[in-house]
Specification:
Layout lengths: L1 H64 L9 H10 L3 H9 L5 E7 L9 E8 L4 E2 L11 H12 L6 H12 L13 H6 L4 E2 L2 E2 L29 E2 L2 E2 L2 H6 L1 E2 L11 E2 L7 E2 L6 E2 L6 H5 L16 H16 L26 H10 L12 E2 L5 E10 L2 E12 L2 E9 L2
Parallel strand pairs: 3-10, 11-12
Antiparallel strand pairs: 1-2, 2-13, 4-5, 6-7, 8-9, 13-14, 14-15
Length: about 400
Amino acid sequence: MGRSSRKGSALVGVIWLLAVLSILIASYAVDAHLQTRINIYLRERVAVDHLTDAGLAIAEVILTDYQNVPEAADESDYEKQLEDDRWYAEKLMLKAQGGKEVTTGAVPVDALNPDGGTVTVTIRPIESKFNLNNLFAGGDANFGELWMRILAVSGIPEDYWDGIVNGWCDWRDTDGTKTGDDGAESDFYAEAYKDFVDGRDVEKNKNYKPRSRDGEIADIEELKAIKGFNEYQEKPINADAILNGGVLNPTEDEKDWIVVTNGISKFFSLYGSGKINVNAVKDPLILAVIPGIYQGNPDDPRPGDIEEAMAIANEIIKLREASEPGENVLITSKDDDDDDTGAYKDFNSLQTRLHDDGLDIQNEASTYLTFQPDKFFEITIVGKSFGIVHKIVAIALVNDGKVRYLRWQEDP
């Protein structure tokens, strides 16, 4: 029995050893499989990164040369230009359509291996909003009128206007003198808010740091730190509602809530000339606040002023978009008096087409409008390969034949 017992114990030991070895082997196999998958992913990720690199090169070729492309004399000349320049169509669309969004579509970078991945390049001029950093006394003589129209269209009650505008002007100017009773200079921000910020208790918001007056801002969200956007008559209000819409005074009884319908952020960019590219703007509200389109007196508004401005704004976009898809791709140098559809060539073209539809736009609007891209563009690059997607969104300044990136986000 003793010998049999020892044999049984040895057998059990061997079985346990085999079990442990099996587990180790299985573990090594899993590790090897995972490592293989990681290596494959890294290889494919490198491949898709090369696609986005190619996309950036494509975007820069289009942006640095689109203003120089010749207009085709006829269809055969267009085809010849396209043979000579792979990106001729995209350049011509950006030039001829006055700044509409242009996309290459999904392009296989390796023509011999179309399954190896594609890249899509989209270029959008961003002069379709007001440059917020210019909208103060030192940047625009009519800043007050524009602010009042924007605040009115956004649905912000008039009682709050002075606090918002004066707070912003003091943040933006350099004179050190408080604007009106609602303004605030550096001494105010140095002390910051003792009891609240953005409607929240400072003691419960440890990440808040008092700020000095800062001049230009780099992000629309910075408005939330400015007096007038987060307080009214020394009471907290919801700054996010001013920017994006929502309940302005959530700390009060629900029956007293003030709901902001639109918010002001849709009107503003932080780049560009400050003019509105009438061929690129998509939101009629942005056009509706422009003097000459909005024809009422903001100091003494009449019922229907906003509705009349919106009617003109909607018609501007409708007439611009009336052309058939692709109609403006082939732009020839021949004389053509037909200017009834597609992009507007100039202010006279805009006035004429509106007048033909029974609407009028005043000459002062020309001060705020442009019909071609300026220097600032949003570039979106999307590379796709083996099921992996890599996206880049960048703000670019194009000047003197060079592209400089002001903002860069990967996989936002």
